[in-house]
Amino acid sequence: MSFGTVTITPDEHRQIFERLAPHLPTYLRKVEPHPCGWGLRFEFAPFTGREQAPTMPSSRYDDPRLKYVPESENRAEHRLREVADHILGELYDQAYREWKDAAHVADLRMVVKDAPGRWRAYEREAKALESAYAYLRTAQAGAEWPSAISRLVDAQDRARAAASAFDERALEIAQVHERHLYSDLTHAQALTKACHSDAAEWHVGSSYEGYYSDFLVEDLERRIKEQDAHVAKVARLSGMGAG
After folding, report:
1. CA separation (Å) from 57 to 42, 61, 85, 91?
2. pTM of the full predicted structure?
3. What is the tens place of the pLDDT at every residue in 182-211?
4. Euclidean distance between CA atoms 59 and 151, whole angstroms
5. What angle do CA 115, 157, 145 make, to 5 degrees?
6. pLDDT, tens digit, for every residue of 85-124?
């Protein structure tokens, strides 16, 4: 088995793991050769993200069979201990990477709460708003213009309220993403693991050092402003706003 430029024999592998045994974590389930042909792959019990972060145990540094020995003093021991140190370091590095992703997901579950329902409510109201706006372009709207405009205003207000409600959750979600800036999961992957697949479609802005940008309601307000400007121009050019 190879570790970088070092190849160890089965007997050396056995000796190394005899020495490492007292320092291996209880959540280690399997050790096997890495498919790429060098090093090892470790399998752990699933992390909840609520455990303490995996770290190298202090017992490793006090173990006389693992302490550093110069190559000039004992080449065989130097070789065994260097490989053992590499294996243990890789093991805890992999464990930490898996744990920090689990911690990211666990923290998201704490703040997602009713975000799925709030997002669905926003989607319904946004669709209703687009429908109310599109209706203004029909011939039928001309016969009931004030009522059609009134329905548009009502739809705008409902969509604005729904967007603001979702933004409350989006802010908390973005703050979690910021805390887990170095997670290996993308924001969409973490949200999918925390709730369900359509979370990838949510409009969640960015949080950085206490500042949140890209509120959903801001995006909606731009659309509403465009709608209002268009309606005002139509009214002016058509004479509907006269008097």
Report:
1. 17, 8, 12, 12
2. 0.83
3. 999 999 999 999 987 789 899 999 999 888
4. 71
5. 140
6. 999 999 999 999 999 999 999 999 999 999 999 999 999 9
